[in-house]
Amino acid sequence: MNKKIFGIGFTISVITFILTHFLHLMFGSSLFLHLLSLSGLLALGFALLYLETREALLPLFLILLAVGISLFDDNTSLSFVFWDGATTMRALISVLLIIPIVGWVLKQENYVEDTIILLKNQLKNSKIFYFLLMWLTQLISFFLNFGAIAVVHQIVQSFFSKQNSEGWQRFKSTVVLRGFAFSTIWVISIPSFAYGVEVMNASLIVALLQGLMIAVIGSVLALFFLHRYEKRNELSFSKDIRSAISDAVENAPQKGKLYRNPSEFVLLFLSLLAFTLIVNSLFDVGLLTVIPVVVVIWAVFYFILKRKTSELVHEGKAYVQSGLAPRSREISLLFAAGFFITSLTSSGLSVTVMNGLYEWTETIPGLNFLWVLPIIVLLLGFFGLGPLTVMVLIAGIVKSIHLPYPPELIVLAMTLGSALSNLLSPLVIPVLFLSSVNGNSPYQNSMKQNWAFAIGFYLIVEFYLQIRIL
């Protein structure tokens, strides 16, 4: 009963926090800023009470670090750390809680399944099918963030429910995890990418196209590893793929709808991407402010055009009643990271540490900070800090030391670290989420199956980064 009350308290507080954030953006009143801090502290308090003890340990640890820094530094006020720190992550929290609205659209039709069936003649080869699934994961990430992992895995599982060999288990898990890892490098609705672009003041178009190119190269590398795995283990997935798709075609809907849904899916993706890019170029308000506004308008237009406003009301009601409270773990981490960042910034400790690392790398021939930056993000991932939390901790600090590199390259180095973290750390949310879906251990889904691929991907991206700064 208490858990339910805490969940309701968190829901009310975090909705108040988001509404106050946008009211402050529109009117700029200090009253809204104070209400923002108050509602943020209440949301954090209810979140910590709602969470299980083990889930609350990481945000509590970050809060204790913030308290320790403020107590040992004479220039850092504890009250400032909490009151100001409660507002630090406001834009990011708004993005994180509004982005799921895009997923409501994807649930309305069998967009992905019909797309696969439509492309049946092109999917006779395991490499082509693997490539398509990786890119479907990235496209669906636009709509569902790491929820794309469950969607694509479920699609693959429904097509290949009889194939449960070790090879097929590896095929199913690596294709979605690698696809999602690529999405963190270029998908504009992934909060960590959007945050990095905004904080570093990078060109969105350049960062997006650069990340897209790297994702294509990474996909080709993934196909090489799939080919090597098939050859080494004398496997061929192609026969099973052709058989499964033939069975699916027999149960496919009428031809008109089969063409309509894939066309709508592509149109939805392009419209969301184009709308975001246009609004971001017209209004100088920051990508983290643009994304939630665009998402809400885009989704409302979809439901109106489809004459499904009742479904929109139903989805909204269900999300408020049961969808917000489960996000308390991520939200509490962001609030705690906000306190930690505020204490680091106020004390000057963050700049000192990063400057030290930067100067150390510059003294070693052939080494520079762009080699080290992805590794820092990855190592923090092994402590349970997800890519979004790490990006929040690192991006502002990196900006403050004024690195002599184009901001788009710094964003790529940081998002490379995010991708590596998603591939290798058994403690980050996407890997834990995949494990809950496929039943394999987090270690098997991450480090065991992806360590060689991750090393190859890291070296390829670093080669590009080093060429660019010559």
Description:
It is built from 23 helices and no strands. It starts with a helix and ends with a helix. Helix 8 packs antiparallel against helix 12 (204-232) and helix 21 packs antiparallel against helix 23 (442-468). The chain is mainly α.
Strand and helix layout:
Elements lengths: L1 H26 L2 H21 L2 H20 L5 H8 L4 H9 L2 H6 L4 H8 L7 H19 L2 H13 L6 H21 L4 H9 L4 H29 L5 H13 L4 H28 L4 H19 L3 H15 L4 H20 L1 H14 L6 H13 L5 H14 L6 H18 L4 H10 L3 H27 L2
Helix pairs in contact: 1-2, 2-4, 2-17, 3-17, 4-17, 5-15, 7-14, 8-9, 8-10, 8-12, 9-10, 9-22, 10-12, 10-21, 10-22, 10-23, 11-20, 11-21, 12-21, 12-23, 14-15, 17-20, 19-20, 19-21, 20-21, 21-23
Comma- or semicolon-separated keywords:
single chain, 470 residues, 23 helices, mainly alpha, 81% helix, 0% strand
The radius of gyration computed from the alpha-carbon positions, rounded to a whole number of angstroms, is 22 Å
User: How many DSSP helices?
Assistant: 23
What is the SS-derived class? mainly alpha
* Overall 3D form: globular
Count of extended strands = 0
Low-confidence stretches: none
Q: Give a short account of the largest sheet.
A: none
Helix content: over 70%
